Amino acid sequence: MKLLFDQNISYRVVKLVKAGFPNSTHISSIGLANATDRSIWNTAKKEGFTIVTFDQDYLEFAALRGAPPKIILIRSGNMGTLAIAHLLDKYRPRIMEFMLDQTPEGMAVLELP
Predict the structure, then answer these.
(1) CA angle 53, 11, 68 (to 5 degrees)
(2) At 94, phi and psi to the nearest 5?
(3) Which of 34, 62, 97, 105 has the fewest CB atoms within 10 Å distance of its CB?
(4) What is the CATH number of the domain that holds 63?
């Protein structure tokens, strides 16, 4: 289960969620620190990542292009690194189900409170 954390989330969260979401990374770790949302989207699609973000711009990409990649949109506004890690851990079963659903009618976006 590979999460790709957007620039508005600290790279430090990767270490905190590694046990539950192995092979996850931050965009800065794969050379996308200053990349456009479209570049991040394309990389996530190519590499099999689910994007984790606060950025609602990805909703437009999902509406226009569908999945993959899938998007986890954190709706709580900007949260600290520990709070994000706790949120992802709390919703891990739901996130895993979301990420594994490859049916055509499956959701492209999972919104977390």
Answers:
(1) 40
(2) -65, -40
(3) 105
(4) 3.40.50
Q: Which domain holds residue 74?
A: 3-112
Q: Where are the alpha helices (DSSP H) in the chain?
A: 13-17, 37-47, 57-65, 81-90, 92-100
What is the tens place of the pLDDT at every residue in 42-100?
Answer: 999 999 999 999 998 888 888 888 788 999 999 987 789 999 999 999 999 999 999 99
Cβ neighbours around 28 below 10 Å, total: 15
| Angstrom distances, CA of residue 107 to CA of 25, 28, 36, 37, 65 | 22, 27, 23, 20, 12
Sign of the torsion formed by the C-alpha atoms of 47, 51, 57 and 59: positive
